[in-house]
Amino acid sequence: MWGHSRKMVRFLALLVVLGLLFTGCGNGKEVQKDVTEMEQSGNQEEDAQDEISLSEQEVAEILQGWSQCDLTPVQVSIEDNFRTYYEVFVYSFYDGNGDGIGDLKGLIKMLDYINDGDPETTTDLGCNGIWLMPVMPSPTYHKYDVTDYYAIDPEYGTMEDFETLVTECDKRGIKVILDLVINHSSSEHPWFKEACSYLAKLGDGEPSLEECPYVDFYNFSKEQLDGYSQVPGSDVWYYEARFYYGMPDFNLYNETLREEIAEIVDFWLDKGVGGFRLDAVKEYVSGDHGASTEILTWFTQMVKEKKEDAYLVAEAWTDISAYAGYYDSGIDSVFNFGFADSEGIIANVVKGNKTASEYSKSLEDIQELFGTHNPMYIDAPFYTNHDMGRSAGYYAGEYSPAQTKMAGALNLLMSGSAFVYYGEELGMKGSGKDENKRAPMYFYDDADAEGMCAGPADMGAITMKYGSLEQQLRDPYSIYYYYKEAIRLRNAFPAIVKGSVENLETYSDDTLAAFSKTYEEEKLYVFCNISPEERKLNFSALEGDALLLQCGLYVDENRASLEADTLSIPGYGIVVLK
User: Fold this and answer.
1) Nearest CA to 62 among 440, 473, 458?
2) What b/e string do you get for 133-154 counting C-beta neighbours within 10 Å, with b at 16 or more?
3) 86 in Cβ contact with 129 (< 8 Å)
4) DSSP, res 187
5) What is the DSSP annotation of 302-355?
6) Local structure of 188: helix, strand or coil
7) What integer pLDDT is reported at residue 142 of this predicted model?
8) What are 392-395's contacts with CB under 8 Å, separation 24+?
9) What value does the CA radius of gyration of the chain take, rounded to a whole number of Å?
10) CA distance 450 to 242
11) CA-wise closest residue to 411 among 368, 350, 355, 352
12) Are β-strands 311-314 and 275-278 bridged in parallel, bridged antiparallel, or unpaired?
């Protein structure tokens, strides 16, 4: 499944070595034996011994890099919609057939990187959900303009590949949600082409839905309104296309179109998809929040009638008070843009533009805001996505590696279903035009290594700030290990994923975010030192049983300590007490 290239064998060997170390299995001879057998099975003439073996000192340093506690992941069922999702742009993730374009076979090969299905191992990231950016046929590299809602883009593989992917994800407890673009189609979609051909021949006459029902699938006008483009071959008709002329907007009030969308949902649910990410919901009726919410309500109810535990998350890129209103639709989740991007709460707190207490206070505030619209809401925190500059570029200077790590943890500490954009766990860079934000996953230094993708054609040259996965596997304090440990921490405590938040005003200040998270009988206290200096706290103000240090996330070799009522937190350290 993994192939036998020298690069891949070396990568897998490192994972096995580290897995044996972290699970406490095997001695140095056993590790070396496994590595040697892997090299032989790959029929490698070159001895890679020096590249993959680890000294006792290196082993000690790696073990020291982990938390102070033993994290036992909580078993999550495939129906549970509180998860940690990994956003995958298939085009740039892993190339399974050597054409330079990522594909589903490549993603299948790398599923064990995301989650190997064994909660006892520590060699995978531990994400238990995957958000697949669009995989349906499209004339563009990003595939947000669909030409066939019942197929897989040939660049990515076949429907059989997709079915295999879902099966393999099920084995690993990974829930797959599919990006569903129903605000618009491609201008190359047969529905739109037939409607335009009909109108071009019709001229100035009035269209008949009996002659061409697809005319009412889109929004046509004899006036060139704002956001409208000219119908090809006609000097009379125009169509709505808010994003660009190649993405004609659907008329989502049309009942026949709604029936078609319901059939599309049936098709993909039958393929084993666990839910959908809904693109651009605020543009369902541009400029009309109420109308867009009404359409989102129809869609949510329609899907839930088909599959009650299907997970739905909507994209509404606007301010927090506006997107909170989309919870009125009854949808599970709406992406929490207020905490995301270079100007969101997380980045501004980490950069010191906002106080640390604003983070913990905001966690408390959003509960009431979202809960007012939907008491059953599941927040969808994320830090970056495919439309935003990569977060490693948000920080500069001596503390930028620590700040990059800290910001990732602040996203993963939020309740709900947290989302991680591929490559953020490596501190990848990419900003400016969209192609740069969707650069190839940085598995190896060698861009020509097996599995490496070429990336979008118009992508600019990107100089990465941090090492490839291949490099970071050797550094116990790398961004990769930090992210992995943060996800393990999230997976180990239900209160982190599902807990209600209370800001601890006594402790929260300019550089310390302090809050509790409570779920059922579990109550955790979380303290985030968002500064390079050590912080000391006295817990005499906290009532209840004596607190014990449960876990910590650290950016370097410094550790927290708890003596009597005094807690010491190192710079950019995060501790969890119970």
Assistant:
1) 473
2) bbbbbbeebebbbbbebeebbe
3) yes
4) T
5) HHHHH-TT-EEEE---S-HHHHHGGGGGT-SEEEEGGG-STTSHHHHHHHTSS-
6) coil
7) 98
8) 392/427, 392/428, 392/429, 392/465, 392/466, 393/342, 393/429, 393/430, 393/431, 393/465, 394/342, 394/347, 394/350, 394/351, 395/350, 395/351
9) 25
10) 40
11) 350
12) parallel
pLDDT less than 50: residues of the chain: 1-56, 59-60, 63-66
Place of tokens 């550790």: 559
Active-site residue list: 279, 315
CA 74 – CA 65 distance, rounded (Å): 22
Tell me the CB-side half-sphere exposure of residue 260, using CA atoms within 13 A. Answer: 17
Six-digit token string for 92: 């740039």
Residue 550's pLDDT is 86
CA nearest neighbour of 44 among 8, 76, 79: 8
* Tokens linked to 435: 């192609």
Q: Beta partners for 276?
A: 178, 312
CA distances to 403, 507, 551 from 561, rounded to whole Å, are 22, 17, 11
CA distance linking residue 379 with residue 419, whole number of Å: 10
CA distance 332 to 313: 6
Q: How many angstroms separate the CA atoms of 325 and 282, rounded? A: 11
Pair of tokens at residue 509: 């200040």
Looking at this protein, which amino acid is placed at residue 70?
Answer: D
Considering only the C-alpha atoms of the chain, give the largest distance between any 2 of them, rounded to a whole number of Å: 85
Q: Give the helix, strand, coil percentages of the chain, each rounded to 5.
A: 35, 15, 50
What are the tens digits of pLDDT across the range 388-426? 999 999 999 999 999 999 999 999 999 999 999 999 999
pLDDT for residue 65: 43
Of residues 381, 385, 390, the one with CA closest to residue 486: 381
The residues, ordered by sequence, that sit 6+ positions from 206 with a Cβ below 8 Å of its Cβ are none
CA quadruple 418, 423, 427, 431: dihedral, nearest 10: -100
Write the CB contacts of 482 (distance below 8 Å, at least 6 apart in sequence).
405, 408, 409, 553, 555
Of 553, 385, 494, 371, the C-alpha closest to 76 is 494
pLDDT at residue 20, rounded to an integer: 36
Which pLDDT belongs to residue 29? Answer: 30
Two structure tokens written together for 273: 């998809």
Q: Report how far apart, in Å, the C-alpha atoms of 416 and of each of 60, 212, 367 are.
A: 35, 45, 11
For the full predicted model, state whether its pTM sits above 0.85.
yes
Q: What is the pLDDT of residue 544?
A: 56
